[in-house]
Amino acid sequence: MANNLLAGKVGIISGALNEKSIAWKVAQRAHAEGARFVLTNAPLAMRMGEINKLSEECNAPIIPADATSVEDLEKLFTGAQEQLGGKLDFMLHSIGMSPNIRKGKNYGELNYQWFQQTIDISALSFHKMLAVAEKQDAFNEWGSVVALSYIAAQRAFLDYTDMTQAKAMLESIARSYGQRLGKLKKVRVNTVSQSPTKTTAGAGISGFDAFYEFADKMSPLGNAPAEACADYCISLFSDLTRYVTMQNLMHDGGFSTTGISQEMADLMEKANG
């Protein structure tokens, strides 16, 4: 049910690949809540995905940009302000990729050049986007920036390998830039640590199904679906959360603060029986 929470607001949504993407769901909800926005993704991802379909549905222009390229990002922010007729009120960073994970490298065998690419794509791109936005004075006061993270930034998870470090850096950048942009423009910057979600990126991680089932059995509310994550992001873009900034917000059905659930205890007893 729409409540016009983003009526009159404009922004940038990155990372929508297909209907499974959290960014795709965020775009749909933002559109339903009255926002106008530009969609962006890397040219390669755009060729692999279905972003044109989303563009038509949301009446949202597309500006391709490699988020690791400052030159591309300068064109993105300039173009977005031109297309939308002014400064921005919100931005979603939903960008992450690990060549090491794609190539099946375990943590002890990481290719360090690929590791640097993981960091650049999944974390430094966030700093670059915020730095370009600051230089262009692209945000209105009381704007909101959200980046998507995962609890592996704080805990060790098998097979998440170098994305663990990338997410930790992403959250650190949110804190540092949240302090900076808060003082400069009252812009808030947060990360949302989402439950394991059956996206194209998630499915590429070895053992993902085990991650998903374990988290679902541990969480009192179960795993949060992509649609619920989109709702949460919309609340963070809205004026209802003006004083929330520099936070890593857990959106995981209670997984992060559950020691053990009855379901897991029952499974362990059954296995030992």
UniProtKB/TrEMBL annotation:
Molecular-function GO term, any one: enoyl-[acyl-carrier-protein] reductase (NADH) activity
Source species, domain of life: Bacteria
UniProt-listed Enzyme Commission number(s): 1.3.1.9
Active-site residues annotated for this sequence: Y150 (proton acceptor), Y160 (proton acceptor)
Residues the record lists as binding NAD(+): G15, S21, I22, I95, K167
SUPFAM superfamilies from the UniProt entry: NAD(P)-binding Rossmann-fold domains (SSF51735)
Catalysed reactions, semicolon-separated: a 2,3-saturated acyl-[ACP] + NAD(+) = a (2E)-enoyl-[ACP] + NADH + H(+)
GO biological process: fatty acid biosynthetic process
Pfam families (UniProt xref): adh_short_C2
Keyword set, alphabetical order: Fatty acid biosynthesis, Fatty acid metabolism, Lipid biosynthesis, Lipid metabolism, NAD, Oxidoreductase
Family: Belongs to the short-chain dehydrogenases/reductases (SDR) family. FabI subfamily.
Name the UniProt record assigns to this protein: Enoyl-[acyl-carrier-protein] reductase [NADH]
Organism: Hymenobacter coccineus
